């Protein structure tokens, strides 16, 4: 099971932070995600590292960059209940859903039934 292979570090035991995961249905992600690689440039526009040889990823709707939408998470984004609505949202929402590590195991238990 994917959850059992998650590594846990005790260095985070005494912090106010906790693990969050964005779960996006793969077909939706592959159609919706876009990155023009701006995150790979410094403030003056120079490459921080050599970019990949393949073309930047453009979404089906022609969006050229939405990486930040996928990686930015705030408290309001975190789901409060793992239920039918949350499961439906994973399969229907462009950005999927965000859950904490406790909800992750419950979520995968429900969809694997």
What does this structure look like?
The chain crosses the membrane at residues 16-34. Belongs to the NTAQ1 family. The protein has a two-stranded antiparallel sheet. It has one domain (18-111). The relative contact order is 0.23. With 113 residues, it is of the alpha+beta class. It has four helices and two strands; from the N terminus they run βαααβα.
Strand order of the largest sheet: 1-2
Q: How would you sum up the major sheet?
A: 2 strands, antiparallel
Principal-axis shape: globular
The number of helical segments is: 4
Give the termini separation: 13 Å
> What share of residues are in beta strands?
5-15%
Q: Stretches where pLDDT falls below 50 for ≥5 residues? A: 1-5
Classify the helix fraction into a percent range: 25-40%
Q: Quick summary of this structure?
A:
The protein is an alpha+beta fold and 113 residues long. The chain has four helices and two strands; from the N terminus they run E-H-H-H-E-H.
Sequence-ordered SSE layout with sheet pairings:
Blueprint: E1 20-23, H1 26-32, H2 67-71, H3 84-92, E2 97-100, H4 101-111
Antiparallel strand pairs: 1-2
Keywords: Hydrolase, Membrane, Transmembrane, Transmembrane helix
Catalytic activity: N-terminal L-glutaminyl-[protein] + H2O = N-terminal L-glutamyl-[protein] + NH4(+)
GO molecular function, one term: protein-N-terminal glutamine amidohydrolase activity
